[in-house]
Amino acid sequence: MATPTLTWYPLGVVSCWSGATVLPTETVKALILDNSYSYDKTHEFVNDVVAAEHDGSGYSRSLCSGVAVGLGGGGLSAVVDLDDTVFPSVGTGTNPVRYVAVYAEVTDDTDSPLLFVMDIGQNITPAGALLTAAWPTGGVASIKNQTASLDPDAPSVFQAVEGESNGTSWVTMLSGIAGGARVIRSVIFHNAVGAPEGVELRLSDGTNDLTLLHDTAVADKETLAALPTGYRFTLPDENWSIAMRLDGASGTDVNWYVGFENG
Q: Cis (ω within 30 of 0) for the bond into 24?
């Protein structure tokens, strides 16, 4: 029997953390994607995936009920959960069914953020019958407190730091460590509120600077993934750091997030 796998969209996580999407008060819906879909971590809104939406007769998107955020693991973690989602009638389409994607409905497909997607694990050819998306027991996401999340002796563990900047001075986002390297996997900026702002990003060893972004615009309420897909940067020792600043003078608050691993 095939084992379903569930994957969150990174920009959907940012949308939740930034307050742009507030669970469980949002209208949350699910849609079915066929086997032509290919997951991409840069997919942000429904219109990024709608080309692969199932086209069988009788099919329509389904409202997700029971969306809740609460405590789990004996009160040590925050858990996002929802009831199993039912599609009453799903007919045969051009391609077999393979995925179920969940999103928060705003106005239309262009501004409704994707949250997560489940790969059913096999192709299914429906014939007008009811289809149920059974979500994992115990929740679709769990965030557990990790008191040692920045422990340099914890290799192979994905970690993150976050902060906020509202000025033109350089702000160190992450520094290297002695005796080992730090591999930066992702850098994300979010303009929380205010006018469009220019963001600058650089790597430095204390003497030499390498500019990664120069006056790159981040519009009001916009999220920018600063590292292209497949790119990684390494801080080889304690002399190296990655820093950012705002290039404009609007005083806009820009939130930042750096994901990394200790090598």
A: yes
